[in-house]
Write a structure and sequence with these properties.
Largest sheet: none
Protein name: ISAs1 family transposase
Pfam families: DDE_Tnp_1_assoc
Organism: Legionella qingyii
Radius of gyration: 14 Å
Distance between the termini: 36 Å
Keywords: Membrane, Transmembrane, Transmembrane helix
Structural class: mainly alpha
Number of helices: 4
Number of strands: 0
Order of helices and strands: HHHH
Strand content: under 5%
């Protein structure tokens, strides 16, 4: 078992991996956090989205 899995638990492992990614975008000009974008992309890919437009539509149709 990976050390980070033991430390954060199985449910939080992916979240921990995403948080370790450095966000190099310019602060103050970002509408959404990098974590939000990564989760949308991952879910979109799992659901069969095949491009950025499909992922944007996926995110818009599932927005609360």
């Amino acid at each position: 078992m990976l050390e980070s899995t033991r430390k954060f638990g199985k449910n939080q492992y992916l979240f921990h991996c995403f948080l370790s990614i450095d966000d190099r975008r310019v602060g103050g000009r970002c509408t959404y956090s990098l974590l939000t974008i990564l989760v949308i992309v991952l879910c979109g890919l799992i659901c069969g989205c095949d491009g950025w437009k499909a992922m944007a539509l996926f995110a818009k149709t599932r927005r609360r």
